[in-house]
Amino acid sequence: MSVVIAESYLVAIFSSPDLKNWTELSRYGPGPATVGGVWECPDIFSLPDPSNEGQNISVLIVSVNPGGVAGGKQYFSSLSSSFPREYHLSPSPAA
Questions:
Q1: d(Cα 73, Cα 71) in Å, to the nearest integer?
Q2: Which residues contact 91 (CB under 8 A, 6 or more apart)?
């Protein structure tokens, strides 16, 4: 799970074995991010890496209110060397 610590311009990621007990794994930001407005609604997901067949890249999106670079959203990807290791997602099992 990812959450925003809005006034500090940070995204924190948590893990839970049972959805009752949570452990903070890391915090990320601001680095190359836009610092301004209010950070909200983080989302992290995995996409196929077009350069490496069978590999995925992880993408973190943070909304910025009011507006901001790229129309109120900014993104970070696992292609960046500063992207936290804890934010790399494993590929989803085939359905």
A1: 6
A2: 46, 56
Shortest CA distance to 48 belongs to which of 86, 11, 82, 94? 94
Residue 91: is the preceding peptide bond cis (ω within 30°)?
no
pTM reported for the whole predicted model: 0.67
| Residues 64/73, Cβ–Cβ less than 8 Å | yes
Amino acid identity of residue 50, one-letter, is: P
Q: What is the residue-level pLDDT of the chain in tens, covering all 95 positions? A: 778 887 788 888 888 889 999 998 888 876 666 666 788 888 888 888 888 888 888 888 888 887 655 567 776 776 665 566 655 555 444 33
Length reported for the chain: 95
